[in-house]
Amino acid sequence: RGYNRDDYPPLLDAGAEVWTTDIDPRAARWGVSGHHRTGDACQVDQMFNGLTFDAILCNGVLGHGVDRTDQQTRILAAMAKILRPAGRLLLGWNTDRIADPVLTGLTAIWFSPAPFAGLPSRVTFDAVTHVYDSLVRVE
User: Fold this and answer.
1) pLDDT along the chain (139 residues), means of 10
2) What are the extents of the domains in the chain?
3) Which of 61, 37, 65, 62 has the alpha carbon at shortest distance from 50?
4) Is the dihedral of CA 72, 77, 80, 86 positive or negative?
5) CA distance 28 to 21
6) Cα gap 63→54, rounded to integer Å
């Protein structure tokens, strides 16, 4: 069972084109066949050069390899480059691993918090440190 291939595509509307990425070449087997790129997430704009996305799910990256503020700034800028204006970024991160990227202003240059699917722009969980921020790309 893949952590990307099986979990996310069924959640999307029919006809959606899904791409996956991981820094570890061995993880390609879990990605979407024919739509997977291997590389540094901080350079995702270069990996997907020429492509524009309506939405990006970035979960378990900040604080799990992309730890320093300069790295987080680079990945946010890179995702903004390949996300269409008003496109959605769902950012999953953990409060015990990094400083809050929204409250510290890291996301503000490129993104604005926005509710999604009847949920608030930030979803937290009582039993764990995981947070999801729903953001849209500003023009």
Assistant:
1) 48 70 87 87 94 94 94 97 97 96 97 95 96 95
2) 19-87+98-137
3) 37
4) positive
5) 8
6) 24
Strands (E), the chain: 20-22, 36-38, 53-59, 83-94, 111-113, 122-124, 130-137
pLDDT number for residue 80: 98
Residue that is written with structure tokens 């590389």 in the block: 39
From the list 68, 52, 130, 53, the residue with the least C-alpha distance to 104 is 68
Lookup: tokens for 139: 């023009």
Burial 77-101 (b: 16+ CB within 10 A, else e): ebbbebbeeebbbebbbeeeebeeb
Backbone angles phi, psi at 81, to 5 degrees: -65, -30
Cα–Cα distances (Å) from 42 to 62, 81, 94, 117, 125, in that order, read 10, 12, 18, 28, 27
- Identity of residue 71: Q
> Which position has the token pair 């480059």?
81
pTM, to two decimals = 0.88
